[in-house]
Amino acid sequence: MTTVSVSERGQISIPASARKRLGIRPKSKVSVEVRDNEIVIKPVRSISEVAGIFREYAKGKTTNWDTIRNEAMKAVAEEIENETRR
């Protein structure tokens, strides 16, 4: 665990090791959530960062996001069904 200071403007710096481990770069978006007595900071991935994952499901057939989403949903459902059969 690393301890950081809060600035007068309420800002903190995320340690470089944590940014590197989570892939947080300058201009990255993060979500901030208060849970009980904690603050949880998580990276938020843009659609362009995860686009390659979804395109794999569509197998290069299209760049239409509706088609890609539908193909991805079908593929994920098939994977879940296969896992429950094991």
Task: Write up what this structure looks like.
The protein is α+β, with helices and mostly antiparallel strands. It has 2 domains: 12-44, no CATH class; 47-85, no CATH class. It has 3 helices and 2 strands. The chain has a two-stranded antiparallel ribbon with strand order 1-2. Helix 2 (47-58) crosses helix 3 (65-85). It is elongated, with a radius of gyration of 19 Å. The relative contact order is 0.08.
Short description, anyone?
The chain has 86 residues and is an alpha+beta fold. Helices cover 47% and strands 16% of the residues. It is elongated, with a radius of gyration of 19 Å.
- The count of domains is 2
What is the mean predicted local confidence, pLDDT? 82
Helix % is 40-55%
Order of helices and strands: HEEHH
Descriptors for this entry?
alpha+beta; 2 domains
Write the layout of secondary structure elements.
Layout: H1 16-22, E1 29-35, E2 38-44, H2 47-58, H3 65-85
Antiparallel strand pairs: 1-2
